[in-house]
Amino acid sequence: MKTLKNRWAILAAMALPIAGCSLEPSYERPGPAVPGQFPVGGPYPALPVSGAQPVRYTDIFRDPRLQTIIGRALANNQNLQVALGNVRSARGQLRSARADLLPSFTGLAGASVARNRGAAQGFGGAGGGVTQIYNASAGLTAFEIDLFGRVRSTANAALNEYLATEAGVRAARLTLVGETASAYYTLATDRSLLAIAEDTVRSAQRSVELTRARLQGGIIGRTDLRQAETILQQARADRADLTAVVAQDRNALELLVGAPVTDAELPQSIETADPLLAELPAALDSRILLARPDVVQAEYTLRAANARIGAARAQFFPSISLTGLVGFASNALGSLFTNSGFTYNGGADAGVPLFDGGFNRGNLETTQAQRDIAVAQYRLTIQTAFREVSGALARRGVIAEQYAAQLALQEAAADTFRLSDARYREGIDGFLTTLDAQRTLYGARRSLALTRLVRADNLVTLYRTLGGADLVPEASIAPPDAPRGSEVLRGER
């Protein structure tokens, strides 16, 4: 039995992976190619430099109805389900690549019976010319010793691709939250515009009735009646259009949520939804962009491309594969598992690339080009993020002044319309002055509602472009500076 144990030890040692060198290029994060801080001065708000962290959507969107809708969208949205499916697919590919790091054993068992008509007595000593063979074995099939890190580089590439896909899910969730909030505020604004149109229809209808009565009394001409009808018909047309738009807004919101939305969950108006928005923290610097999910995804993609260079370089060097078989064979089932029935064999094959027609060199050039493309895409992703945040900050710096001006304009237009209408009723002014005042008020009310939407959308854009911190548990995606290779593999559950 001691000899048997020694044989098993020898074969087990042959199956262990031999640590080899890695031919992967040393990874260094590319410079972001953007300024260290966001623009200041002019339309931009004053931002003290600090390491502010991404905010949670519940800190910005404090409307309980909107929070409920966002939660349902994160659970039901079909585009997000596609992204989650991609994560499961990448996880499977990672496990397949990781499996190549370990030997694969296969167990076999069999029995055969043969009759030799020309033999006087069988090999087994029973049944005349009948031969019986029983066997049970375990084999090691072509396990590659990773001398030059090809298998490990391939596994590292698969790991980074998996992490990039997980970061992509976070990016999809961030986009979904932004689109859902934007659709919510768009619906609220269109409901406000519809209410303004309905209010204007009622006001214009009263003006038409008054003008018609004065026309019948011979006080005014027919022109005043026609002028009064213009604002009425315009408001009626807007009301019909906005009725359809509100229905379309609701359909768009339900598509994002992935389920019907009840009337109780819908905003009544932008005037009721807008006050439930909170301001973003004022202290920001551009380093926050490195945590944005699409930037994280781009860096993991770059790391994967860097690892594939190591695998391509290893193709130029020899490869060694181990094979082995241990088991038992006997012509009698009862004596199968005995020392006399033990059998084993092992071997090693070495392959050296002699001539491949330039395949390996072309493969290396391809992987190097893909790495260069990934570097450019990583930098472009950061530059795009910087532009998006800078543009949103430029709007944020002036939106308060714009809103105050629109509010003052509506108040002035409302007062002008009241005075003009009173003067027309007293016969002091013609209806044209009242008509102009009513049109100005109608436009001012619409502009104020749309300015509220711009303010809400600006905060949605800032939240989305700065990157949310609450969409994926922190432990589910390793940060870009996390330990690589086997340390990450061992740490994954």
From TrEMBL:
<dbReference type="InterPro" id="IPR010131">
    <property type="entry name" value="MdtP/NodT-like"/>
</dbReference>
<keyword id="KW-0472">Membrane</keyword>
<dbReference type="Pfam" id="PF02321">
    <property type="entry name" value="OEP"/>
</dbReference>
<feature type="region of interest" description="Disordered">
    <location>
        <begin position="474"/>
        <end position="493"/>
    </location>
</feature>
<dbReference type="InterPro" id="IPR003423">
    <property type="entry name" value="OMP_efflux"/>
</dbReference>
<keyword id="KW-0564">Palmitate</keyword>
<keyword id="KW-1134">Transmembrane beta strand</keyword>
<protein>
    <submittedName>
        <fullName>Efflux transporter outer membrane subunit</fullName>
    </submittedName>
</protein>
<comment type="similarity">
    <text>Belongs to the outer membrane factor (OMF) (TC 1.B.17) family.</text>
</comment>
<keyword id="KW-0449">Lipoprotein</keyword>
<keyword id="KW-0812">Transmembrane</keyword>
